[in-house]
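Reader question, answered in our methods column.
A reader sent in the components of a multi-part assembly and asked whether the whole thing could be modeled at once rather than chain by chain. We filled in our standard form and ran it. Here is what they sent:
COMPLEX SIZE: two components
ENTRIES:
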Amino acid sequence: MREITFAEALREAIRQSMEKDERVFVIGEDIGVYGGAFGVTAGLIEKFGSGRIVDTPISEAAIAGACIGAALAGQRPIGEMQFMDFVTIAMEQLVLQAAKIRFMFGGKATVPMVMRLPGGSGTGAAAQHSGSVESWFVNVPGLKVVVPSNPYDAKGLLLSAIEDDNPVIFIENKLLYKTKGDVPEDMYRIPLGQAKVVREGRHLTVIATSVMVNRAMEAAEKLKEEGIELEIVDPRTLRPLDSDTITKSVKKTGKALIVHEAVKTGGFGGEILSTIVESDAFDYLEAPVRRLGGLDIPIPYNRNLEYHAVPQVESIVVEARKLARGEY
Amino acid sequence: MAKEVIMPKFGFTQESAEIVKWLKQDGDTVEMGDPIAEVTTDKVNMEVEATESGILAGLLFKEGDVVPVTQVIAYIVKPGESAPQRMAAAPQPPPGVVSPPIEQVSAAASQTAITPVAMRVAQNLGVDPQLVVGTGIGGRVTREDVESFAHSQPADGKVRATPAARRIAREQQVDLRAVQGTGPNARVQGSDVTQFISIQPTAQDTLVKPVSAMVGNMEAKVVPMTSIRRTIAERLQHSYQQAPHIYFDADVDVSALDALRQRANQLPEARDAKVSLTALLIRIASWALAKHPYVNSRLDDNKILLFTDVNVGMAVALENGLIVPVIRNSDKKSVFNIASEMNALVERARLGQLRPDDLTNGTFTISNLGMFGVDRFTAIINPPQTAILAVGRSVKKFVPDETGQPVVRSMMTITLSADHRVIDGAVAARFLDDLRKGIEQPELIIL
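And here is the structure of the entire assembly that came back:
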């Protein structure tokens, strides 16, 4: 099968949607001639023109507000922010407007929009450009939250997000943009709310999101040499959450490790953990459920400190090994 | 009234002392304060003094015996009085502690069960001594055992167990307090419970009664598979199907070993536990195993695990099945120790009080059917081990001596089953040859 990058897979999903449905358009900063901060929209302005690839001034609130207005007026906008961190500027629009309009209008109005947010650390972009704040949105009923970990899922999930009648927060980890993977050319969809067991194993379940799925896969290869078999579950969407796939896996292995880049305190890992212990998987637990997440600090600019501020392959190996060996 | 002389306690942590020398003998007149025996702890030699004037009588131990503190070692009687019959000095369990019915436990077994200081500590800490695994002489529970057990138990008396362990215990009606935990801080894991169940005859098992049924036109008694039978069936079927067995027979001369056994049983060390041929074979096999790591191994997926620890198990027939208690570090133990540990293990097995620890971590197994008159047989390897030794009976036979003249020797056939995936013929043969040498010339083991 054809191999393309995560960024190319996203671009293909956007292009195919725009070709199929003229209501779909993209709006964001420097997405036209410049092609976007991470090149996702490169070349699209030549094909669709500035009427559908809309550059804006530096105002995230305006991007979000324009998306909401357009969506209410029957369009299907895709908003892009240069860094997830700047969504703070647009919180009122997303949380108070986008998330609540359908409910408050008794279902007479819908807000079919996607807000694409490049998140995560590892690029040396310091504390204001490296955040992973997905759990803020999970806490808001009315929003869906998608966290793809590979090019195939990125395309299939983005197509579903664009076609969904609700506002979708679509989080793209910056380190994933250049990763490659097999991606079919047709317009396939991955339903929102369907987790995937990306690796089968018997000793413990690792529930990892976004770039942490890749790190967990690498850790699994290392631990395999020690005879430890990790089962890795990628939730793919945090809301709606496919709790069945997670609990089924934990019932099988009896142990769970949750890994995400976002700060551990108040991070989504707590929600996954609760999902496990509230379910019948509780009766199958053979050890405390463990979490690996970002440290309780802003992401440092210093590359070494930045590296150690979030879970890495080595830290996953150490934690998973301890859990598998019965040290917890 | 005879006055008891007890083994005194010299130190806070002292649990026993060895009698070095009796300074007075049976029938000697003693004055209060006279030294009557010299004893030694691991640190220092001390004297035991007469606590009363009179005649020393009924010395209960020989020189060299190790005696728990507070145990009566002799009596001082008035002229014309005789020493009382020796009482089984079984320590009294503290109130509230359930002890097995007395008729099930031999005096010897309960005598070696726990040291007095350990019993007192257990009482203070509220520990049920029955649940503590003993590491002292002859499997005796020591103060350290009790303390480490108590330390591993939560202070509130609640059992630490994983949710999975609790679920399995609930489903299988197992009392978690009886299960030894292998998790962190002795937390009971689900696997601990399943293993516990697999080695304990369950209530259901003991209630199993054959029922009659017609099979075709024949009448048959139907016996349900008990959990222990199921475990045996699964493990042995797996072993026989997965491990390509190769077999090696050797006729060995056990005359020297027989003589050694008889001499050993004359010694005071054999008082508590008679040395059996099996105990000697465990010792000799352990010695040979230490030299042949491939026979002391396991096959684990794609890896061969060679163990430095030698833990030899012995097959024990119970009424409802077969189990294999394990003597740990059997290459580092004396034959006397092995014999007394075997006794304790067999006793626990018969009473259904085996601990998971007793059955795990074996690296080799010996199955001796000689006492049933079997000449020779082959055994199925006890997985995940890679070899097992089957021992037949020893019989007197005429064999030619060096000059070709017939002489009578005690001969026995041993048969090694080896997993050919791990053990090649030559490896097995060399191991068997060492085994033969050890049996025929046991002095080699100390030379």
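What stands out: The CA atoms of residues 16 and 187 of chain A lie 7 Å apart. The interface with chain B takes residues 227, 254, 282-287, 326-328 of chain A (CB under 8 Å).
Send us your own complexes using the same form.
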